[in-house]
């Protein structure tokens, strides 16, 4: 299973479409602040949540499951993700999720905290505290999760991501 994780596209629908077209995945997770009409989002297997800048009526939190792995998806602005990972970890545990995907900070972050893998793909439009826009791909193979980060042109970012046991 391969999942594309994006966040904070802030109206850059064409860029989002290009990334989705370039990357061959089973599912796409958008962690909010897409800032377009929902009909402009990619027509693929998609889990999307509402960010603090979105006007479309989509859920603020979603659970998505595949391959025996449960994902908690939210934007993160209501979980203080800019200051600490603990509230989002606790919410994921509360929901029985092993992976929590979130955005809001525009900063790529991937760390296993307790039994939860926290993934912030960064922003494909306006990075903060990082030199370039980013997205992430998650692959589940034989009980191991591999997370790889990319620049929006598809170039791998070696200093982010990793392999995790769940």
Order of helices and strands: EHEEEEHEEEEEE
Overall 3D shape: globular
The number of strands is 11
Strand order of the largest sheet: 3-2-1-9-10-11
Report the sheet-strand fraction: 35-45%
Mean pLDDT across residues:
95
Binned, the helix content reads 10-25%
CATH class: Alpha Beta
Q: Summarize the biggest pleated sheet.
A: 6 strands, mixed
Unreliably modeled segments: none
**In the CATH hierarchy, what is the superfamily?**
Metallo-dependent phosphatases
Radius of gyration: 14 Å
Number of domains: 1
Question: Could you tell me how far the N terminus lies from the C terminus, measured between alpha carbons in angstroms?
Answer: 15 Å
CATH architecture: 4-Layer Sandwich
User: What class would the helix/strand composition place it in?
Assistant: mainly beta
EC number: 3.1.4.-
GO molecular function: hydrolase activity; metal ion binding
Cofactor: a divalent metal cation
Keywords: Metal-binding
Give a nutshell description of this structure.
The protein is mainly β.
Describe this structure in words.
The protein has 166 residues and is mainly beta. The chain has one domain: Purple Acid Phosphatase, chain A, domain 2 (4-Layer Sandwich), CATH 3.60.21.10. It has helices at residues 13-22, 86-94; strands spanning 2-6, 27-30, 46-48, 61-66, 69-74, 99-101, 108-113, 116-121, 134-141, 144-151, 156-165. It has a 6-stranded mixed β-sheet, with no helix packed on it. Strands 4-5-6-8-7 form a 5-stranded mixed β-sheet, covered by helices on one side. The longest helix has 10 residues, at 13-22.
């Amino acid at each position: 299973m391969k999942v594309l994780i994006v966040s904070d596209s802030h109206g850059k629908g064409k860029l989002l479409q290009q990334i989705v077209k370039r990357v061959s995945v089973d599912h796409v997770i958008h962690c909010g602040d897409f800032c377009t009409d929902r009909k402009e989002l990619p027509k693929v297997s998609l889990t999307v949540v509402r960010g603090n800048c979105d006007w479309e009526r989509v859920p603020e939190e979603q659970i998505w499951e595949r391959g025996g792995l449960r994902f908690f998806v939210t934007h993160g602005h209501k979980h203080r993700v800019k200051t600490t990972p603990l509230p989002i970890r606790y919410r994921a545990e509360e929901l029985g999720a092993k992976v929590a995907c979130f955005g809001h900070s525009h900063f790529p972050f991937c760390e296993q905290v307790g039994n939860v893998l926290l993934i912030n793909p960064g922003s494909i439009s306006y990075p903060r505290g990082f030199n370039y826009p980013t997205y992430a791909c998650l692959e589940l193979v034989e009980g191991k999760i591999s997370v790889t980060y990319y620049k929006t042109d598809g170039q791998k970012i070696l200093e982010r991501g990793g392999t995790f046991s769940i």
